[in-house]
Write a structure and sequence with these properties.
single chain; about 240 residues; 2 domains; alpha+beta; 8 strands; eight-stranded antiparallel β-sheet; about 40% helix
């Protein structure tokens, strides 16, 4: 069965956790989902959209990259421009002047170059930015991955797809709350983590609405939510819809 718990954004993460915790059985764990689609698995449309998004973020300095990744992009772009004789005036400049010149190119989105060359620059940024991993991914998620497969999760439940994803398991309450906070719009499954991946497991998915957030619960084998879970939802004065 599918349940939609309305406007959970009005309650704390602790209370959201209490709802999820009340659903799982003694031998079950909360396992979180994260899309892990590789760059070669992207559709042409997705690649194109992300390329524009990363390029805009790079030019506006709003993209979450490390200093090393910024430097890598810079060097690749400079080498590309020099190789194509588009930056002939940069070689005699000093380092500080060269940095200023490059910053000006970025601030102006490389508008002085032909669209074909700018598109190549966008590819350079895309390839580095798409593979970038946040500290949360590196230091938390990667150490807790228990499944790596071709299943995805959204408000409709678990579905098989042509791209890869990961499922990771926080070890205790503090880690679960940390994951919920970092993911913001989190999703996952309630399952016995010592067993193989269960594509029919009960799933949960926090979904953004026009003015708040809803929590979707898809139960395994059309199982009904327990009286305990329903009582907790009622205590928090939340509305619940059954589909």
């Amino acid at each position: 069965m599918k349940y939609i718990i309305k406007d959970v954004g009005f309650i704390s993460l602790d209370k959201e956790y209490n709802i999820l915790d009340s659903i799982r059985k003694k031998n079950e764990s909360l396992v979180f989902y994260r899309c892990d689609t590789k760059i070669h698995e992207l559709s042409k449309e997705s690649y194109s959209d992300l390329k524009e998004e990363y390029f805009e973020g790079y030019c506006n300095d709003t993209i979450g990259l490390s200093l090393e990744e910024h430097l890598q992009i810079k060097l690749l772009i400079i080498n590309f421009l020099i190789k194509n004789k588009l930056l002939q005036y940069m070689q005699p400049l000093g380092i500080s002047q060269a940095d200023e010149y490059y910053k000006n190119l970025v601030d102006n989105c490389f508008h002085m170059y032909h669209d074909n060359f700018v598109d190549k620059i966008k590819d350079i940024i895309m390839n580095i930015a798409y593979g970038s991993e946040s500290p949360y991914r590196k230091n938390f998620i990667n150490k807790r991955i228990i499944y790596h497969n071709n299943y995805c999760l959204d408000e409709e439940g678990i579905n098989k797809v042509d791209f890869t994803n990961i499922w990771y398991m926080p070890n205790d309450i503090d880690e679960i709350l940390y994951a919920m906070k970092e993911e913001a719009i989190y999703s996952g499954i309630i399952t016995n983590s010592s067993n193989p991946f269960d594509y029919s497991a009960t799933s949960f998915c926090k979904v953004e609405t026009a003015d708040n957030y809803d929590l979707y619960i898809n139960t395994k084998d059309n199982e009904k939510l327990s009286t305990n879970t329903l009582d907790i939802i009622k205590t928090y004065k939340l509305k619940i819809q059954t589909l």
